[in-house]
């Protein structure tokens, strides 16, 4: 690991999460830059990343950040962007609006910062959008490839340029595989009431499109109805919307079905490797999770590059969320490398509003201007005996 990161980004997952949750710190992490070449413009380009490391997003945010950091290290080692080194500034927050404001003040004051890349969390992305709208400088920074689940709530004018599928596309993929094998009814559960209020409309729309009936399970902290109790006892297939810790708690309290096996469908915020480290799920259940990036066993070029970079720069196992962070950085670098004008905040924003399809080493990002036209979704499974399949 580069010496400049050792004190700020330890390789121990437990140590990192403990530090993030106890200190609730905010910091900037500059990547090591490629040595300057004579006769070229070697002025560094700064790229900022705000990562929500609150309890619900710790595992996602941590792996996503490591993946992005590994990508920028590799990009700089290969000569940077248009021969210019990239200074990758990462700001880890506690997920609060104040934490995001503190990060934004530092980013806005960094004159050579031209883009926000791979920010993690809907709350962070919304807050950054609002802060930019009120900024006295008026110099909008594009938000490229954020890890958000409510992507369709950001209008084209918001300067948010997604590359990953949100809740609606992930749910449509997960539920279509069920409807194709004759399933007509499923249970649905949420990590908490706020999550249910935010995601239920998307779940209902996806289910209605596929002709599936939904049966709600009890929400934590609320008195369940008799129908919810019945669904908890009888539904063999349950869609769970929430993070890894909440899924683990949910699976532990879910009653076993006599003589039957239960399948829990989850979305891309769940890290199945971490779930396995937490003890997995009871033997009467298996978890099937959607992924917004190719399987880690894929021969796709970007997957091979991610695994190689991770092995070179970090003593870390690969994960889908880490691969997503890697893809986010590589996509941002591709946009910057393809620009024919000077790289400024305004020119980057304009280039993204005119973006076309981009091949990120085998991972296709299909766009028409600000609008992303399609997203990649696949699935993997954590079996009852703890094996990852897919």
Provide an overview of this structure:
Pfam families: Peripla_BP_6. Belongs to the leucine-binding protein family. Keywords: Signal. Residues 44-371 form the Leucine-binding protein domain. This protein is α/β, with parallel strands linked by helices and 390 residues long. It has helices spanning 3-6, 13-23, 58-77, 97-108, 122-133, 167-179, 193-209, 226-234, 244-253, 272-277, 301-313, 320-337, 345-353; strands at residues 45-52, 86-93, 113-117, 143-144, 160-161, 185-190, 213-216, 237-241, 262-266, 285-291, 358-360, 363-368, 371-374, 378-382, 388-389. It has two domains: 3-165 and 298-373, 3-Layer(aba) Sandwich (Rossmann fold), CATH 3.40.50.2300; 167-291, Response regulator (Rossmann fold). Helix content is 39%, strand content 18%. The strands form three sheets. It has a seven-stranded mixed sheet with strand order 7-6-8-9-10-14-15, with helices on both faces. It has a five-stranded parallel sheet with strand order 2-1-3-4-5, sandwiched between helices. Helix 11 (301-313) packs across helix 12.
List the helices and strands and how they pair.
Elements: H1 3-6, H2 13-23, E1 45-52, H3 58-77, E2 86-93, H4 97-108, E3 113-117, H5 122-133, E4 143-144, E5 160-161, H6 167-179, E6 185-190, H7 193-209, E7 213-216, H8 226-234, E8 237-241, H9 244-253, E9 262-266, H10 272-277, E10 285-291, H11 301-313, H12 320-337, H13 345-353, E11 358-360, E12 363-368, E13 371-374, E14 378-382, E15 388-389
Parallel strand pairs: 1-2, 1-3, 3-4, 4-5, 6-7, 6-8, 8-9, 9-10
Antiparallel strand pairs: 10-14, 11-12, 12-13, 14-15
Helix pairs in contact: 3-11, 3-12, 4-5, 6-7, 11-12
InterPro entries: Leu-bd, Peripla_BP_I, TAT_signal
Keywords: Signal
Family: Belongs to the leucine-binding protein family.
